[in-house]
C-alpha cells in the first residue's frame, strides 16, 4: 500500500512538472526562467515548428497528388466524351433540324399573337 502511495505521489509530481513545462512552452510563467532555460525552450519550439512545417508540406504534397490524379481522370473523361460527341454529329444535326422545322411550322400556323397588356381582372372578350 505504501508503494502505491509513493507511485501516486511521484506521478502527481511528474504531472505538475509537465504542466509547468507546458505553460512555459505556451509562453506563460517565463519570469522565473533563466537565460539558459529560455534558450532551451526556444530550441524546443524551433524543432516543433520544423516538425509542424514538414508535416504540413507532406499533407499538401499528398493533396496535390490526389488533385492531379483527379485531373487526369477528368481529362480522360473529357476526351472520351469529345470523341463520343464527334462520332454522332449526323444524328444530332438531324434532331436539331427536326426541332427547327417544328418551331417554324408551328409559328406559321399561329402568326397572330396577342401582345396587349391589361391591368386588372381579366374580362370576357368576344372576337
Automatic annotation (TrEMBL):
Per the record, the domain of life is: Eukaryota
- One Pfam assignment: K-box
Q: Which GO terms describe its cellular component?
A: nucleus
- Spell out the molecular function terms from Gene Ontology: DNA-binding transcription factor activity
UniProt domain K-box: residue ranges: 1-91
> What protein name does the entry list?
K-box domain-containing protein
Per the UniProt record, the source organism is Populus deltoides (Eastern poplar)
Q: What is the lineage of its organism?
A: Eukaryota, Viridiplantae, Streptophyta, Embryophyta, Tracheophyta
Amino acid at each position: 500500500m505504501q508503494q502505491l502511495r509513493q507511485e501516486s505521489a511521484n506521478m502527481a509530481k511528474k504531472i505538475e512538472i509537465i504542466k509547468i513545462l507546458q505553460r512555459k512552452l505556451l509562453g506563460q510563467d517565463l519570469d522565473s526562467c533563466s537565460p539558459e532555460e529560455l534558450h532551451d525552450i526556444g530550441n524546443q519550439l524551433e524543432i516543433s515548428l520544423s516538425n509542424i512545417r514538414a508535416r504540413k508540406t507532406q499533407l499538401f504534397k499528398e493533396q496535390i497528388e490526389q488533385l492531379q490524379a483527379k485531373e487526369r481522370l477528368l481529362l480522360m473523361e473529357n476526351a472520351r466524351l469529345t470523341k463520343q460527341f464527334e462520332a454522332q454529329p449526323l444524328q444530332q444535326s438531324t434532331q436539331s433540324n427536326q426541332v427547327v422545322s417544328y418551331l417554324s411550322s408551328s409559328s406559321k400556323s399561329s402568326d397572330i399573337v396577342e401582345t396587349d397588356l391589361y391591368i386588372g381582372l381579366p374580362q370576357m372578350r368576344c372576337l
